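Design job #97: recover the sequence.
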């Protein structure tokens, strides 16, 4: 109840459009709770059973009014349980007026398990209580058939420890003694409860009653045969109905929980089966099939079957930008982009696509088109130039960076001060880039890179950015080294000819 005075709620009148307005003002929250469920909650938490036990029962013990006092106690408990269930059932369903309470599968599993235990506790407690009532009824029948004055000995008195002849007659009464035997009274499903009343340990009585509740709810009272007592038959029918309800609701939710744990695995199995059927239909050779299976497994391990682009499209623009900055923060490690302003970085991050390569995949090859820039996140690549020089690319490195310079050089400005592409050949690769291990990377397509360069051409033409591109790029450094070597050999050859002449 104290939590309800600080728990925000969604205003009902604001649900007409959208998700509604969340009210978090303390006074409005308190006023809404006082007008709502406060009286019900206050009545539920009142210690009515404790008051009856401490004040009402002691005054009636040892008299005929004890039976009425116990009936009053049962009525008070039942009167409090009905509103308690009214407040508890929405939580069991996992919903409240402000939305879902238990959104995770683990929370649903725990609340369903606790509900099953609570139901077993209630059924077991009622079974023990009704069993005592049947024993009480048998003893009353025995005392009325013998001597009505003996009925005073059924209920415990206030320190009544006399051993009068009347008490001795009652303890030796054959009708009363038969009430504690199996054939002395038609107990039906309460026979074990009668035997349980002789146990002095409260823990033993409670644990066995709880076990009985678990057993009957789980088996739908299939192993019980009630007597002809009407209320006993109704109680057995209630156990069967409660068991069916719990199996339909709780066990169904547990099944959903277990299915949620294996949902990704099931999706992966279905995806793998579709791929196998497609490869069989297209009659792919075994080598290609092996590579496709490897690529599918690695791609699933990297993405967990989640399409990040679809997930980000449903988020607000500023949140998309912040998430992309977090995902692509490795870009700042690349000195080419460390010198760029945030608008350029955001534009590049918006166009990046997640890509996975398996061991042996060729990202670039001799004579092929350079259609993308690839940023290595995890794994290793090797780049082999025309002169046969090898270089290793690892986390934070970029391949295909020559595409950025090429997009800046092969462009012009029209009369509207807009950047246009000059028709011509596309960039041809003069090196091969191959994956040494499985590689996770992000790629930037040529068309997206052209769009970024068209928007930020002046910033990208900054000499510092151009110098970083030339200096940090392994591609440009290898070209520079090769040209220096060619110039040095040419000069050495000229000097050799001059000395010979």
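Job complete. Output follows.
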């Amino acid at each position: 109840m104290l939590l309800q005075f600080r728990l925000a709620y969604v205003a009902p009148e604001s649900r007409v459009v959208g998700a509604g307005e969340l009210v978090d003002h303390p006074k409005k929250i308190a006023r809404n709770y006082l007008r709502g469920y406060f009286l019900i909650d206050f009545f539920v938490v009142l210690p009515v059973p404790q008051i009856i036990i401490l004040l009402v029962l002691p005054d009636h013990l040892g008299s005929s009014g004890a039976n009425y006092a116990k009936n009053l106690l049962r009525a008070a408990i039942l009167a409090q349980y009905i509103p308690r269930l009214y407040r508890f059932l929405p939580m069991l369903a996992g919903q409240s007026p402000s939305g879902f309470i238990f959104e995770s599968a683990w929370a649903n599993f725990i609340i369903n398990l606790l509900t099953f235990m609570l139901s077993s506790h209630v059924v077991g407690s009622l079974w023990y209580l009704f069993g005592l009532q049947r024993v009480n009824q048998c003893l009353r029948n025995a005392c009325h058939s013998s001597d009505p004055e003996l009925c005073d000995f059924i209920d415990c008195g206030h320190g009544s420890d006399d051993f009068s002849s009347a008490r001795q007659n009652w303890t030796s009464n054959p009708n009363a003694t038969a009430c504690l035997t199996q054939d002395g009274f038609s107990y039906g499903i309460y026979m074990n409860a009668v035997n349980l009343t002789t146990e002095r340990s409260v823990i033993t009585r409670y644990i066995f009653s709880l076990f009985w509740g678990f057993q009957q709810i789980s088996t739908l009272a299939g192993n019980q045969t009630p007597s002809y007592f009407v209320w006993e038959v109704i109680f057995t029918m209630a156990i069967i109905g409660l068991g069916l309800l719990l199996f339909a609701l709780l066990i169904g939710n547990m099944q959903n929980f277990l299915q949620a744990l294996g949902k990704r695995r099931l999706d992966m199995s279905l995806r793998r089966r579709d791929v196998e059927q497609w490869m069989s239909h297209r009659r792919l050779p075994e080598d290609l099939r092996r590579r496709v299976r490897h690529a599918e497994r690695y791609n699933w391990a990297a993405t967990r079957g989640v399409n990040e682009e679809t997930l980000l499209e449903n988020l607000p623009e500023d949140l998309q930008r912040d998430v992309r900055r977090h995902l692509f923060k490795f870009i700042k490690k690349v000195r080419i982009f460390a010198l760029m302003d945030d608008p350029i970085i955001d534009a590049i991050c918006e166009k990046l696509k997640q890509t996975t390569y398996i061991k042996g995949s060729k990202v670039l090859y001799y004579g092929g088109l350079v259609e993308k820039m690839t940023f290595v996140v995890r794994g290793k690549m090797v780049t082999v130039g025309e002169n046969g020089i090898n270089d290793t690319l690892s986390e934070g490195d970029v391949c295909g960076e020559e595409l950025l310079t090429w997009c800046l050089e092969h462009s012009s400005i029209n009369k509207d001060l807009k950047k246009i592409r000059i028709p011509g050949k596309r960039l041809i690769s003069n090196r091969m880039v191959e994956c040494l291990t499985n590689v996770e990377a992000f790629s930037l397509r040529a068309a997206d890179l052209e769009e970024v360069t068209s928007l930020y051409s002046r910033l990208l033409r900054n000499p510092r950015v151009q110098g970083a591109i030339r200096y940090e790029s392994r591609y440009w450094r290898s070209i520079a080294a090769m040209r220096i070597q060619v110039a040095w050999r040419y000069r050495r050859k000229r000097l050799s000819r001059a000395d010979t002449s």
